[in-house]
Q: What sequence folds into this?
């Protein structure tokens, strides 16, 4: 059991909260490995360079990541009062989501399973000092 009053526990939990601007896309219909190819290309880069990379990347996941970057940048400007030109991609990662299972009929009455994987993609921005 946690010690202290409920409001005190909530206050301590909120004090440790990450204040960096971020955006999260849940249940994206792309596998984690395919999303990571795009995320690895933009990790650590400044915002304008990262947007340029995902704009001209032919992968499907890059269109999803571009929307996330723009959303995180808008969060930084409107909620945190940060300047857009000082932002960079501090963290970006994809976690495994649920998998849809489908069946593919095969020869002689067999059935092969098809797994349609999903992922949860998160982009965290920060301001360069």
A:
């Amino acid at each position: 059991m946690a010690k202290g009053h409920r409001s005190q526990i909530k206050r301590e939990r909120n004090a440790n909260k990450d204040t960096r601007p971020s955006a999260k896309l849940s249940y994206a219909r792309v596998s984690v490995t395919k999303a990571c190819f795009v995320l690895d290309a933009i990790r650590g880069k400044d915002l304008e360079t990262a947007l340029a990379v995902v704009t001209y990347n032919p992968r499907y996941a890059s269109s999803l990541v571009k929307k996330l970057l723009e959303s995180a940048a808008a969060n930084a400007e409107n909620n945190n009062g940060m300047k857009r030109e000082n932002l960079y991609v501090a963290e970006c990662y994809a976690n495994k989501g649920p998998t849809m299972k489908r069946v593919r009929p095969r020869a002689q009455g067999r059935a092969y399973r098809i797994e349609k994987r999903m992922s949860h993609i998160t982009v965290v921005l920060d301001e360069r000092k």
Notes: The chain has a mean pLDDT of 94.
